[in-house]
Amino acid sequence: MRTFCFLFFVFCFLISGCLPAPYFQKEASIPQYAWAYNYKPAFTFDITDTTAIYQSYFLIRHTQSYPYCNIWMWVYVKTPGDSIPKKERVNITLAENSGKWLGRGMGEIYEQRMKVDFSDSIRFHKAGTYTVSMEQNMRINPLPEVLNVGFRLEKKG
């Protein structure tokens, strides 16, 4: 039995070493847990390897009382050398049709990391500093029960 437990822990240790570390990840707290239209969290990072492929993720932490199964957002990406950010409307699904939340839950709080696939107009092809900002675009203002939002970028291959 000891051998089995030891091998299990070694296996878990090896598997955890294979999970991708984020190239960039940052989160912002939502004031009073109600995301207002005028609160646009921004995340700034540098891209040095323009040959790499990057996968973007939207991070959200909300309560089980969040009133919708999705979230519509405007995502703004300011690329190096550009003064005006590119803008794209994104819909992120947060729950299954049955109402079951996606992601991880602990008590009344759910945390999700959802892929965001930008259109071809928003890519990380230039070296330099990028800024990604997010604006909630739901029909309700402020959007209740949102604790944190964030942006994660993983370098693939």
Could you walk me through the main structural features you see in this protein, from its secondary elements to its overall organization?
- By secondary structure, the protein is mainly β.
- Helices cover 10% and strands 48% of the residues.
- The strands form 3 sheets. It has a 5-stranded antiparallel β-sheet with strand order 1-11-4-8-7, with no helix packed on it. Strands 3-9-5-6 form a 4-stranded antiparallel β-sheet, with no helix packed on it. Strands 2-10 form a two-stranded antiparallel ribbon.
- Mean pLDDT is 86; it is low at 1-17.
Mean pLDDT: 86
Which strands sit side by side, in order, in the main sheet? Answer: 1-11-4-8-7
Tally of separate domains:
1
The count of helical stretches stands at 1
- Helix content class: under 10%
Overall 3D form: globular
Concise summary:
Helices cover 10% and strands 48% of the residues. It is mainly β and 157 residues long.
Identify the notable features of this structure and list them briefly.
1 helix, single chain, five-stranded antiparallel sheet, four-stranded antiparallel sheet, 48% strand, globular
